[in-house]
Amino acid sequence: MESVQEKIIIVENLTKQFGDFTAVKGISFHVNKGEIFGFLGANGAGKTTAMKMLIGISNPTDGTANVAGFDVHTQSEEVKRNIGYMSQKFSMYDDLTVQENITFFGGIYGLSRKQIKTKTEELIAELQLGNITKTKVGDLPLGWKQKLAFSVALLHEPKIVFLDEPTGGVDPITRRQFWELIYAESNKGTTIFVTTHYMDEAEYCNRVSIMVDGVIEALDTPKKLKEQFQVNSMNEVFLKLARNIE
After folding, report:
1. ABC transporter domain: which residues (predicted)?
2. Among 84-93, 177-186, 192-201, 219-228, where is mean pLDDT lowest?
3. Whole-angstrom Cα distance, residue 193 to residue 105?
4. Which end of the chain is less packed: N or C, by CB atoms within 10 Å?
């Protein structure tokens, strides 16, 4: 008998319109607690628009979403307090040092000075940042920026962390190292919701959804999706799905 897993994100008929254009077209899905959930699709498929609704910074046009036990329509501030968020486009302040960024975001997340001090020491030790805490983030390699941004998104120990294209623009080795950080955090029980257009990264997820033109066209484990489409890789799943829709 299959065990009943706790659902930490529940989405029903979620829709977002911009004038006459519907970017997200009535999507429904759930994410289990502690799961690494891949939200995949080509650029422009609607992934980021959907994520913005889930993290409480964009109001849905229609439908419902419950994130970490809170309604995104009526409890968006509670949603924000219980999640971490990392964007590819905006991660850290380049003109502040590593130390200053950690302190700043710790304050934003409502941590006390004592908590910030403790968390800073833990983060510096974990990422081996000892020699660069006074370095401006803008002077760090992109891979270091991404690792630091991920760790800072977890400072307040959120139930869920949303990662929007977290490995965009970094080399394959750095991408793999970043996924090791994701696995480590998932093993602690944190739910990871990650958007990416790198189809090979889907293999690292417990389950994946694939969005095409604002609609979720497939959702299952990578293994079952490959079996369903009779292919050997998630990239082939995506290509076959796109051809079927055309």
Report:
1. 9-238
2. 84-93
3. 20
4. N
Arithmetic mean of pLDDT over the chain: 90
Q: Write the pLDDT tens digit of every residue in 33-83.
A: 999 999 998 778 899 899 999 999 999 999 999 999 999 999 999 999 999
User: In the structure encoding, which two tokens stand for residue 46, read together?
Assistant: 């609607």
Whole-structure pTM over 0.85, yes or no? yes
Four-CA torsion 180, 183, 188, 191, nearest 10 degrees: 130
pLDDT surpassing 90 at residue 168: no
CA atoms within 13 A on the CB side of 155: 31
Tell me the C-alpha distance between 70 and 153, whole Å: 19
pLDDT tens readout for residues 3-35 = 457 999 999 999 999 999 999 999 999 999 999
The whole-angstrom separation of Cα 56 and Cα 54 is: 6
* Tokens, residue 92: 């850290």
Fold of 7-219: Rossmann fold (3.40.50)
Q: Is 231 exposed, middle or buried (0-12, 13-18, 19+ CB in 10 A)?
A: middle
Gap between the Cα atoms of 190 and 141, Å rounded: 27
CA 124 to chain centre: 23
173, two tokens: 């080795």
CA atoms within 13 A on the CB side of 151: 26
Are 16 and 58 in contact by the 8 Å Cβ rule? The answer is yes
- Please report, for the chain, the start and end positions of each structural domain, with discontinuous segments joined by +: 7-219
